[in-house]
Amino acid sequence: MPHPIVCLDERLRKYLHSFDALFSRPQFEHFVTVLVALLMSLEGQTLSHLHRAVAGKKSLSSMSRFLSQAPWSHQEVIKCNFSRFCHMMKPKIEQECQKVKEQQKKLKRHGRRKEPFVTGYLIGDDSTMSKTKGVKMQGLGRHHSTTHEKCIIGHSLVQCLYTVLGRFCPLEPFLYRQKKTAEKEGMPFLSKIDRMIQSIQHFTPPDGTLTHVLLDSWYSAKKIWKAARDRGFLITTGLKCNRSLRIPYDITPDTPKGWKWQSFSEYVASLEASAYQLCSWPRNPERQVWVHIVDTHVKSLYRCKLIIIRYNLNDPIKYARYFATSDLDADAQKCLEHISARWDIEVLFEDAKELLGIDQYQLMTTTALLRYWTLCWVTFSYLEEIRDELKHQGMPDHEQHIEEKLEKKGEIEYVRHEDVEGLHATLGQARRSVQETHHELFLAWVYQNALSGTPVKDLHAFLVA
């Protein structure tokens, strides 16, 4: 049954009106229609599904024009969303900084105390949206898909997620075009690495935070590290096994500087069992891993801590995982916290595909596509607020979270286990809570119309309009 716009929850109404200044009145009506449809649709998230999910006189073609032709900026919508997030988190960040300052006072150490801060993670990754039948769609290319374990035809979304104090806010989405596709469409070519550098350079963190960039091994290029270091950010990335590290060596004609490069596999093979320490995985304390950390230089990178993780010391060396961090003061457990935090963006992609259908679109232009992704992230941000409320209300976690589908045997990145007050609540539970609230409002609206004597035919005509 289509949901009437007049039955909006007051909280959602206030949230939507925080974006009012970015649209004309007709555009804002379409904005509200799309977001409510993303929240309420039970059939799917194509434009036809969204059109059927909300009652009203807006046509399918007008919704299509809103996404593809109307003069509004998805960048401004994302900026407004992030500004709202920073404003909402400001008192929590200040409160956490005050706690750190009080802890520093209790230590009674001499000298100047460090300025307290809260660590915020800027997590970047890409995800492939399968569009094997979308021949006429703009921006299509052949991209590798981890789901299909091969290259498929589709769109490649390059995305950053900012997280601080257990809260999440997606940033501006970018569409990666392969060089051939960019030339065909008359667009400048930018690699995924260039896109990620732009995201790091243009990111403005909330006051009172220290930004830590988290990326996987595909984004371990030196120029990404340089971009992070130039901004004063910390950075942790995965590393592929074909890299090399600097190790001390006797001075010889071949090694006049007293060191040489050694491959990761050779270095791991030379380590004794006593070189590792057993640590608990931060988000799954029951799982333990063997960790070896060394301060070194990685070839084609800067000075860093190299983190080597193994599940079992008897496993073949090829199963070892490698990471590098610029946080030279971090101990083994802190390094694992950085590494495990990167998994949040994988959860973001999976939740968004499952609940918001960021891969279910049937849009022809890249303008419409970027705008659709933006509206999905605005919807996600609202659900994230509801999820945080449910978590602190102690809502029982009686349902399996979508993250559990991601968990695979032998992977480093495990599911998120939140170490905060209250019980764990999922994005799916938040969406169902929103739907239940609006279903109650809908029934109350029908009841009031029945009491006032509104004919059934009139109600039916309004709902199917």
Question: How would you characterize this protein structure?
Answer:
- The chain is of the alpha+beta class and 465 residues long.
- Helices cover 41% and strands 21% of the residues.
- It has 14 helices and 15 strands.
- Strands 3, 4, 5, 6, 7, 8, 9, 12, 13, 14 and 15 form an eleven-stranded mixed beta sheet that branches. Strands 1-2 form a two-stranded parallel ribbon. The chain has a two-stranded antiparallel ribbon with strand order 10-11.
- A hairpin with a 2-residue loop joins strand 12 and strand 13.
- Helix 2 packs across helix 3, helix 2 crosses helix 12 and helix 4 packs across helix 12.
- The longest helix is centred in the N-terminal third of the chain and has 34 residues.
- The protein is globular, with a radius of gyration of 25 Å.
- 36% of the residues are buried.
What are its keywords?
single chain; 465 residues; alpha+beta; 11-stranded mixed sheet; two-stranded parallel sheet; 15 strands
Outline of this structure?
This protein is of the alpha+beta class and 465 residues long. It is 41% helix and 21% strand. Helix 4 (60-68) crosses helix 12 (366-392).
Q: How many distinct helices?
A: 14
Termini separation (Å)? 12 Å
Mean pLDDT: 88
Helicity level, as a percent range? Answer: 40-55%
Strands, count: 15
Helices and strands in order, then pairings?
Blueprint: E1 3-4, H1 10-17, H2 25-40, H3 47-53, E2 54-55, H4 60-68, H5 74-107, E3 118-130, E4 141-145, E5 150-164, E6 167-170, E7 174-176, H6 179-184, H7 192-202, E8 209-215, H8 222-230, E9 234-239, E10 244-248, E11 259-263, H9 264-270, E12 277-281, E13 284-297, E14 303-310, E15 321-325, H10 332-341, H11 343-356, H12 366-392, H13 427-451, H14 456-463
Parallel strand pairs: 1-2, 3-8, 8-9
Antiparallel strand pairs: 3-5, 4-5, 5-6, 5-7, 9-15, 10-11, 12-13, 13-14, 14-15
Helix pairs in contact: 2-3, 2-12, 4-12, 5-12, 7-8, 12-13
